[in-house]
Amino acid sequence: MDKIIGDLLQDDLVIAEIKATDKIGVIREFAGILQATGRVTDTEALVRVLLERESRDSTGIGDGVAIPHGRFSFISNMVVAFGRSSQGVDFQSLDAKPVYLFFLLVAPDNKPGDLLKALARITRMLKNPVLRENLKRTSDRQELKKLIDEADSNYPQK
Does the annotation count 15 as an active-site position? Predict the structure, then answer.
């Protein structure tokens, strides 16, 4: 993966306040943003891919974080989106607590390694409780992006 998370996460894919109140709603909201910004054309196919992944194990990893992800044949480059919910969403997280911070990762079918590298990097970044708290408290889209960029730059590429 040549790009780091901060480079992959474009400003128009940062949702300062997720409106959805459940897992399916969050996934649909992300799919809608990807369609509205021209990253995908078939939102229903993307929703199916993401929900199929969720059916195996929740991507709610705990500590208020979820990383819904999947491989999607209808894109040519990895897409990263971020969303924040001030109310929290029941995402059937591993710790059974609400999720406030979401990273959506969608990789082309032919680049599974990119998806795994991005998952590992985001997981490592979000182990930082100060970052999680700052992201939860910030409702400004540009500030959210800045926090993610700064956190991402703290982890040199391998």
Answer: no
